[in-house]
Specification:
The protein has helices at about 15-35, 55-60, 80-90, 110-115, 130-144, and strands at about 1-10, 40-45, 70-75, 95-105, 120-125. With about 140 residues, the protein is of the alpha/beta class. It has a 5-stranded parallel β-sheet, with helices on both faces.
């Protein structure tokens, strides 16, 4: 069985709906791909172990990134401290597929720097349908 581990990074509050949508899209894809011997593991901090950590909780989340096949980050007007930290860890650990999905909005200087990063794959969405199609495309590309 082929395993595909996806780490989903974004502001949990700002992108609550998008995170739920991506989770639902991946679960639907999983239902179809399981017959082909593909298992998708999605890491979302909302569903991570909430036991007390000996370090800061973010360190627990960060430890999941290097073992991921795909790092997906959703970005809007700005990028939060923890999301930026996760992005930097993904780049340092050389996650095979780093995918950044930008919401079609005006953005600040930190986001502008990421948009100019030529070493990552970038997408932009305006609607829920576009976001679904991007997620499906990212998973198909990783499986090919």
């Amino acid at each position: 069985m082929k395993r595909l581990k996806i780490f989903l990074a974004s502001s949990v509050n700002e992108f609550k709906n998008e995170r739920n949508q991506i989770g639902n899209t991946i679960r639907k894809l999983q239902d179809k791909l399981i017959d082909d011997g593909v298992r998708i593991n999605l890491f979302e901090c909302e569903f991570a172990d909430n036991t007390v950590s000996t370090e800061r909780k973010q360190a627990d989340y960060n430890s999941e990134i290097p073992t991921s096949d795909i790092f997906i980050m959703i970005v809007g007007k700005r990028i939060g401290q923890y999301t930026l930290e996760e992005y930097e860890i993904a780049k340092k650990s050389k996650v095979k597929y780093i995918q950044v999905i930008f919401k079609n909005v005006e953005y600040d200087e930190d986001v502008k720097k990421i948009r100019q990063d030529e070493s990552i794959n970038k997408y932009e969405y305006k609607s829920r349908e576009e976001l679904d199609e991007i997620i499906k495309k990212l998973i198909q590309n990783a499986l090919n």
